[in-house]
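hey so u asked for the seq, here:
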Amino acid sequence: MLAPHVRRKREGVPMRVHDYRDLIVWQKSVDLTHHVYELVRRFPAEERYALSSQMRRAAISVASNIAEGNAFFHRAQYIRYLGLARGSLFELGTQIEIAARLTFIEPTDASTILVEIDSISRMLQRLSQRLRESRTPERTDSRALPASRRRALTAASPRPPPAVASLTSLDISSGFLRTRRCGDRARTANCASCIRCAWDRTRQ
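ran it, structure tokens below
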């Protein structure tokens, strides 16, 4: 059996699907929607805007989310919409169970719909898994950057002020520094003379 994201050519060779209408899982979802509409016609009149309406919306949402996800270029978005389609599918399955318990539908009809739901759910799961496996692996090699790239990164990176870098190598006590140009004990961060002198001392 072919995967749910491929179709056959006339020669029997699988080919990639680019149109959502060629997806087997989308085609089965549309068939499921048709069967649900035929089923809810037998519901009582008071359920027209209650359970029957919810079942129709859930069935429509399955095929619609598959088609919408196929329109995205990013696989992550596609996988997300396939998950939404699967959620709507399980919602529909729950509503089928409720309708069967309320005797709105026959047990045989409920079983037929539930088999379709299970088949589509498996196809959506396989399609999501294939999309995850086909992602491009991230680059893990540790090759050095080209010299031109390293020079561009070095030129673009801001350089720290020389005074701050030089003060870290001096003997600073309690945030104060005594220099030859300044006979008073002054804060190095507020005394330009001390900062210039400290820079000169580190260059000697």
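The first helix runs from residue 24 to 40. The chain has seven helices and four strands.
lmk if thats what u needed
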